[in-house]
Design brief:
The protein has about 90 residues and is mostly helical. Helix content is about 70%, strand content about 0%.
């Protein structure tokens, strides 16, 4: 979907197809869709961490963070979260 959108923008703006995607995004003041997906993941993870301990989502999260059931998305979201915190604190 992202590639189709970038091709359309290049066509509308009369850019060459070899124009780097980041230049098209900068010219149109937009972010890639993956950026918004990562932000939503971090927001959802923060919601889970700050929820009441009796909520079903929190119980599932605690189950999945057990050493025998570690899921890759939890690690991915955690990494993104700590990168964002570092950027906000030091950048």
């Amino acid at each position: 979907m992202e590639s189709v959108h970038l091709k359309l923008l290049k066509l509308i703006l009369n850019f060459k197809s070899s124009t780097p995607n980041f230049m098209v995004n900068g010219e149109t003041s937009r972010y890639p869709l993956s950026f918004f997906v990562k932000i939503r993941m971090v927001m959802y993870w923060t919601k889970i961490l700050t929820a009441n301990e009796i909520e079903l989502v929190v119980l599932f999260y605690q189950c999945y963070t057990d050493e025998s059931f570690v899921r890759s998305w939890i690690k991915c979201v955690g990494d993104i979260y700590f990168i964002l915190v570092d950027c906000l604190m030091y950048g």
